[in-house]
Design goal:
mainly alpha; Cytochrome C Oxidase, Chain A; 2 domains; 4-stranded mixed β-sheet; 8 strands; 68% helix; globular
Length: 756
């Protein structure tokens, strides 16, 4: 069947050139910053000695301590330099504060002859100033690769061996870790050495600089850690960059009114009809059932995690930490989110690939079945491996089959290899099924963009293999955010754009040239800020101020494409058949609820990534906010709100596509309930819990210091626990009215397909 828009004007070659230019300039900048991380990372000394030259600990203990931190899953309990979980403390900040108390007590006794608690306000201010002078001095000798601790630092290290041993004894004080979780003396010694190194890097000034290796993070005025002038400057300039970017883009959109989601002329027809299904598409439906089940498991685990804040150590009369500690629950909560969203994209790609080509090669359905069972093995194997890993079942193979320990990249190396192989096999399936479309001159460019977006997913996951358990934490966080930000928010986002555009094209609501133009336009806008904007995660992890400058400027540009979602809103409504403009007939399209979920993607992308993301991205805010619940607020609204809603749109698109009008009547009722349940539940979660709790926490940072806002004294306060209990209705709405109906809808559809 010939494309009715084949006579439409061809697209300017400058669109393609602009995408290539933006991509290579952005990647050059990001690679440069990543290489600089190796140069500017805080040094790990071969030995840490006291003033007499006696060794306290060395590189081996620090690296072994990092391994203890990882193999026990402590990044899923607390954090280092603001990165990790929010249930427990920031270990680097807590160690630093305990160090400051030891140093202050030593100075108070020596200079004033009294204990620290006996000082008046002016005396305490004088002591704090002297503490800052002592701790800010960098006594690292680069020639000898040796670090010298003064007496107060040595004494603090000895005391904190006891402090951290006590921390791991009781679930009620460590937010749900098992009783006596880490009890071996060597493990405690190594772990404390690692914390000592992270605290030293947080406070000691870089050579010839008036700020620490972490740009004075965390905020703690008692040790002289305050916001740097560079952070203020680049925050102000980032706002100017945002306004300039908005002005340019709005001018272009005003001049060229054909930009954005524009429908085709009257007479367009759908290429993807509900009920007309191939064997490969039918085989993909079980993926959507797995998506719904994984989604259900993830939100139920999220509810249990919230309970660890509301009432640690007592889950309705049961000590949950004995069976499912908080760190494994948080691991599963993150991993399941990635699994169900990625599975929906994989299935959506298979569904649309078959639709785009119009026919499937021999054995395609068998390949879809094989990929499904590989997915099942990956999910079950990695989740079970993570549970066994934190119980030290795998011995020295813990990084391969157990829990690697890095947030978002918890699954063992073996499972990561399976993941990349699975994505690569998926890409092969997409290529085979797309061959007919590649031979069609009217579909060739759309298909190439579709395959290119898919190919970027396995390729840009490879940085997950660039580091190990003893790599410098700064270097690890550099590559880790290549995955968390560049892979997820960059190339997954680009593939999402391609999927939506192909969906609209296949449903006959957008002209071919407009589909291609939108993909190129979004690629330019998302990649222009998103590639180098990845570095806004590196403000406080041991990189230079040059990185902060580039990160702040380009991260601000990430808001521009999200703001444009408001300009496209009415065009989008007209395309989906949910609104009617003068002279434009209202379309009746069977995929109504898929379109509703797509509109929810736009809303939550703007709110979660745009408003809440920009709120915390500027250095002047991030300095006080990093690792607080405002990050969770942004993460939930953006990950579930944008990526999750798109996953649901693909699920509903698939369900509706394989059913006739008569078969769709019952599943549609559950899909409708699910749409409102998920959106209302998420909105309630943000309004009643995440946002107000995050604001209270950042206020506490400003009042008492970062260490206090991350401590049990704040997290366990009556006010915070009350907010956790208040959030219960949002969890119930999300689970009962949102996810459960989607499980029922996918189950009903799957049963109908296997009976057909």
């Amino acid at each position: 069947m010939q494309d009715p828009y084949s006579a439409a004007p061809t697209l300017s070659a400058w669109w393609r050139r602009a995408v290539v230019l933006v991509f290579f300039v952005g990647m050059a900048g990001l690679i440069f910053m990543s290489v600089q991380a190796y140069r500017f990372a805080p040094p790990i000394p071969d030995s840490v000695v006291d003033v007499s030259g006696a060794k306290i600990f060395g590189r081996e203990e620090i690296e072994a301590g990092q391994q203890v931190f990882l193999k026990y899953g402590l990044m899923q309990n607390g954090s280092i330099w603001g990165h990790g979980s929010y249930l427990g403390p920031d270990f680097s900040a807590q160690y630093l504060h305990e160090l400051s108390l030891e140093a202050a007590g030593d100075i108070a006794r020596r200079d004033f002859g009294v204990d620290l608690s006996a000082l008046d306000g002016s005396q305490r201010a004088l002591v704090n100033a002297r503490v800052a002078t002592v701790l800010k001095e960098n006594r690292y000798d680069s020639k000898l690769n040796r670090l010298t601790f003064v007496d107060a630092e040595k004494a603090a290290f000895r005391k904190q061996l006891v402090f951290w041993a006590d921390y791991f004894k009781h679930p009620t004080v460590n937010s749900g870790l098992p009783s006596n979780y880490i009890h071996k003396e060597d493990d405690i010694h190594h772990l404390t050495a690692f914390f000592a190194w992270t605290a030293w890097a947080s406070v000691a000034n870089r050579p010839d600089k008036p700020y620490s290796y972490t740009n004075n993070f965390p905020y703690d005025p008692t040790v002289g850690n305050t916001l740097t002038s560079d952070a203020v400057l680049w925050s102000a300039l980032s706002v100017a960059m945002l306004l300039a970017g908005l002005a340019v883009v709005l001018f272009v959109f005003g001049k060229f009114d054909y930009l954005g989601w524009k429908g085709g002329p009257e007479g367009s027809y759908p290429l993807m009809l509900a009920g007309e299904v191939t064997e490969g598409q039918k085989a993909a439906i079980k993926y959507f059932l797995i998506v719904a089940l994984l989604f259900l498991a993830q939100v139920m685990i999220g509810g249990a995690l919230a309970h660890y804040r509301a009432e640690p150590g007592n889950f309705y009369g049961v000590d949950l930490s004995r069976y499912l500690p908080s760190n494994i629950l948080r691991t599963w909560h993150l991993q399941l989110a990635i699994f169900w969203i990625a599975t929906a994209y994989v299935a959506g790609g298979l569904l649309l690939g078959s639709s785009l080509s119009g026919k499937e090669p021999r054995g395609h359905a068998i390949g879809v079945h094989l990929l499904f069972w590989a997915l099942v093995v990956l999910v079950v194997g990695s989740l079970l491996g993570e549970l066994l890993g934190i119980h030290q079942v795998f011995g020295w193979l813990w990084t391969w089959f157990g829990h690697q320990g890095w947030e978002y990249l918890e699954l063992g190396r073996f499972w990561q290899i399976i993941l990349v192989i699975g994505f690569s096999f998926w890409l092969v399936l997409l290529y085979r099924v797309s061959i007919p479309a590649l031979k069609d001159p009217h579909k060739k460019e759309i298909t190439l963009l579709f395959l290119g977006g898919a190919a970027s997913i396995p390729f840009f996951y490879l940085p997950a293999f660039f580091f190990g358990s003893t790599s410098n934490f700064t270097v690890v966080d550099t590559w880790r955010f290549w995955i968390i930000h560049l892979w997820v928010e960059g190339f997954f986002e680009l593939f999402v754009t391609v999927l939506v555009a192909v969906t609209f094209y296949q449903l006959g609501v957008v002209r071919r040239i407009n589909v291609v133009r939108v993909i190129y336009m979004d690629a330019i806008l998302f990649l222009a800020g998103g590639i180098m904007g990845t570095a806004h995660h590196w403000y406080w992890t041991g990189q230079s101020n040059f990185t902060m400058a580039l990160a702040a400027m380009f991260s601000a540009l990430e808001v521009v494409p999200l703001t444009l979602l408001t300009l496209d809103a009415w065009d989008f409504i007209k395309l989906t058949g949910t609104g009617e403009a003068a002279g434009v007939p209202k379309r009746i399209i069977p995929h109504k609820w898929a379109f509703y979920f797509l509109m929810a993607v736009g809303f939550w992308n703007f709110v979660g990534a745009g408003i809440f993301g920009f709120l915390i991205n500027m250095p002047v805010v991030s300095y006080f906010e990093a690792g607080t619940i405002l990050t969770l607020n942004h993460g939930h609204a953006a990950l579930l709100g944008a990526f999750g809603m798109l996953a649901m749109a693909l699920v509903v698109l698939g369900l509706r596509h394989v059913l006739t009008d008569a078969q769709w009547v019952l599943p549609e009722k559950f899909v409708k309930l699910s749409f409102w349940g998920i959106n209302i539940g998420l909105a309630l979660m943000v309004i009643t819990n995440l946002f107000p709790e995050g604001v209270l926490q950042i206020w506490d940072v400003l009042e008492n210091g970062y260490w206090h806002a991350r401590s049990l004294e704040f997290i366990g306060s009556d006010r915070i626990r009350m907010l956790e209990w208040i959030s219960m209705p949002s969890h119930l709405v999300l689970i009962v009215a949102g996810v459960v109906p989607m499980v029922i809808a996918t189950g009903l559809t799957y049963l109908k397909t296997i009976k057909a």
